[in-house]
Amino acid sequence: MKGIEHIGIAVNSLDVSIPQYEQLLGVPCYKKEEVESEGVITAFFKLGNVKIELLQATRPDSPISKFIEKRGEGIHHLAFDVQNIKEESARLQENQVRLINAEPKNGADNKLINFLHPKDTGSVLMEICQEK
Ligand code: ZN
Q1: DSSP H helical segments within 1-132, as ranges?
Q2: Rounded to two decimals, what is the model's pTM?
Q3: Could you give the C-alpha distances from 126 to 12, 113, 118, in angstroms and in order?
Q4: Which of 14, 17, 38, 107 suits a disulfide with 111, CB 3.0-4.6 Å?
Q5: Quick one: the chain helix, strand, coil %, rounded to 5?
């Protein structure tokens, strides 16, 4: 893994959280993007080499809806930048780390993504992502 690409934060409402994070971070949101397959709208902020990704659910069965129901707003996942998501997936599986999806999926921000099973990561939801 090359480093932390972004930190994903679950929020109830981007309309509330985007201005809040713009004030907190002192940088503007540079991109909003819906990821239909995940049932989320994302909003990105860039700080040095790391991004903050705010995630708002678009439907009740979205993983973000379920997360907020259980735990409220807050840090949802850590995303690690990888050179080659297929090779990194194979390496992880050789080390008994399960992946959530059998194949990488299209994520926001021009990425191929997958998630690691939280039971295999000490309960931290981790994403791996590769620039397309
Ligand atoms: Zn993410």
Answers
A1: 14-25, 63-71, 85-94
A2: 0.94
A3: 21, 10, 7
A4: 107
A5: 30, 40, 30
Q: Which DSSP symbol is given to 72?
A: -
CA pair distance 14, 104, nearest whole angstrom: 26
Instruction: Please check the confidence at residue 37 and state whether its pLDDT lies above 90.
Output: no
Mean pLDDT on 78-90: 97
19 Cα: distance to centroid of ligand 1 (angstroms): 20
57 CA to centre of ligand 1 in angstroms? 13
Cα(29) to ligand 1 centroid in Å equals 15
The CA angle 61-64-70, to the nearest 5 degrees, is 90
Tokens standing for residue 35 = 């990821």
Say how many Å lie between the CA of residue 97 and the centre of ligand 1.
19
